[in-house]
């Protein structure tokens, strides 16, 4: 097991970034509110987003460059658009992740409020990255994902055996402003936002640096597939837990971070028993903390590379500048929205979905164009799936915007 884990890297970092709000919050809420009715959404998102995530490590392994360097080759203006999107979304996304982590910490340890815990978590994350950098992050994530997977599978198994109710597997198409907004939010971070394909390419390059070995596209894709399949299976598990424990009970999840955290942990302890509270609580907190630190590492790396490509040596804003800047910006947002976790998560996930077509088109053009060696370009089947995925993302984005316009009249 140790040997297998050592060979994995960016794929599990992808899982660490993905298995957070989208799973603990959105998937659980989907099961609680709709039962098994949104499984179709999960699988469609998983299938149609797959190529664009995979193109990140594929491109990095094939060219030795990150996707950001590829975007720059497609045109400086294209990279500038990506830079602007990242700048305006990274604070909201980091805040949404951090507030859920802080909610868990508040529920487990008490002592401080969510805002204080958010500051503590951010500072600890920065210190860990300062000391351990990518190598520590890479090693830490493998055991976190393993711990959460075991814990979740046990909880789902016990819940299935203890359940004596009949549930409908009828699939639901949400209607009304609230339900459609949730659907788009669910799609936005299922299994995560598409800009994480950029993070994947960066982590792939970092993995080569610390391992001192060239990673082939085949190895990179295998590593990614392990992480990707794992995130989808865990999302299904969280939908099952939400459906079995909270659906049709009259209960609903709170938008306040600390209250939601307590409800989330209760999902597990109801099935595994009160004696497992500490283990479950620590596993959930560790998972969200891993997502927090992963995002805190990746966004500054992306901004640093993009900044260097766009401004050359005129504006030297390095990795540590962006980490501190992101930490301060996150704290300011949480100061005003810490009591409304639901709103933060909704804003972050909807923004991620609406920007998804942009990254999907860019990744497809880059991986099938002259900047990627022919032998490492995707097969005809993956190209067809990619085109279908682009249509899927554009259609759902247009549907959401039209629905917003309709309900605002």
Summarize the structure in words.
The chain has helices at residues 2-7, 10-18, 21-34, 39-63, 67-74, 76-109, 114-162, 177-188, 196-211, 217-245, 257-272, 277-311, 319-337, 341-368, 380-408. With 409 residues, it is an all-alpha fold. It has a single domain, classed as Up-down Bundle (Amino acid/polyamine transporter I), CATH 1.20.1740. The longest helix has 49 residues, at 114-162.
Tell me briefly what this model is.
By secondary structure, the protein is an all-alpha fold. Helices cover 80% and strands 0% of the residues.
Radius of gyration: 20 Å
- String of helices and strands: HHHHHHHHHHHHHHH
Q: Mind telling me which CATH architecture this is?
A: Up-down Bundle
Q: What does the main sheet amount to?
A: none
What overall form do the CA principal axes indicate? globular
Number of helices: 15
The stretches of 5 or more residues where confidence is low (pLDDT under 50) are none
Distance between the termini: 58 Å
> Care to count the β-strands?
0
What's the CATH class, please? Answer: Mainly Alpha
Whole-number average pLDDT? 82
Task: Give the fraction of residues assigned to helices.
Answer: over 70%
Question: How are the SSEs ordered, and which strands pair?
Answer:
Layout lengths: L1 H6 L2 H9 L2 H14 L4 H25 L3 H8 L1 H34 L4 H49 L14 H12 L7 H16 L5 H29 L11 H16 L4 H35 L7 H19 L3 H28 L11 H29 L1
Helix pairs in contact: 2-7, 2-9, 2-10, 2-12, 3-10, 4-9, 4-10, 4-14, 4-15, 5-6, 6-7, 6-11, 6-12, 6-13, 6-14, 7-10, 7-11, 7-12, 7-13, 8-14, 8-15, 9-12, 11-12, 12-13, 14-15
């Amino acid at each position: 097991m140790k040997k297998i884990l050592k060979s994995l890297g960016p794929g599990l970092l992808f899982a660490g970034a993905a298995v957070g709000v989208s799973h603990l919050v959105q998937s659980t809420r989907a099961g609680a509110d709709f039962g098994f009715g949104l499984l179709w959404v999960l699988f469609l998102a998983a299938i149609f987003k797959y190529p664009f995530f995979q193109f990140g490590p594929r491109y990095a392994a094939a060219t030795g460059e990150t996707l950001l360097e590829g975007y720059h080759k497609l045109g400086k203006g294209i990279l500038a658009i990506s830079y602007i999107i990242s700048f305006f979304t990274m604070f909201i996304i980091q805040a949404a992740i951090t507030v859920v982590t802080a909610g868990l910490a508040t529920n487990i340890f008490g002592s401080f409020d969510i805002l204080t815990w958010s500051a503590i978590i951010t500072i600890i994350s920065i210190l860990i990255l300062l000391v351990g950098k990518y190598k520590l992050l890479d090693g830490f994530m493998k055991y976190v994902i393993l711990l959460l997977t075991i814990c979740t599978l046990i909880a789902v198994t016990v819940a299935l055996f203890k359940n004596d109710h009949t549930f409908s597997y009828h699939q639901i198409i949400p209607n009304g402003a609230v339900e459609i907004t949730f659907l788009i939010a669910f799609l936005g971070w299922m299994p995560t936002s598409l800009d994480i394909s950029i993070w994947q390419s960066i982590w792939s390059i970092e993995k080569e640096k610390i391992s001192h070995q060239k990673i082939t596209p085949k190895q990179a894709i295998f590593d990614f597939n392990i992480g990707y399949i794992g995130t989808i299976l865990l999302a299904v598990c969280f939908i099952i837990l939400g459906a079995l424990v909270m659906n049709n009970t009259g209960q609903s999840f709170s938008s306040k971070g600390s209250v939601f955290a307590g409800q989330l942990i209760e999902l597990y302890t109801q099935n595994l028993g009160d004696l497992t509270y500490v283990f479950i609580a620590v596993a959930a907190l560790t998972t969200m903390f891993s997502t927090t630190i992963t995002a805190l590492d990746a966004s500054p790396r992306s901004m640093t590379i993009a900044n260097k490509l766009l401004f050359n040596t005129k504006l030297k804003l390095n990795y540590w500048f962006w980490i501190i800047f992101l930490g301060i910006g996150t704290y300011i947002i949480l100061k005003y929205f810490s009591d409304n976790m639901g709103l933060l998560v909704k804003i972050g996930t909807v923004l991620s979905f609406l920007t998804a077509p942009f990254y999907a088109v860019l990744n497809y053009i880059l991986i099938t164009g002259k900047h990627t060696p022919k032998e490492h370009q995707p097969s005809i089947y993956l190209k067809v799936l990619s085109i279908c995925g682009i249509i899927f993302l554009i259609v759902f984005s247009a549907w959401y915007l039209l629905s917003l316009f309709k309900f605002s009249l």
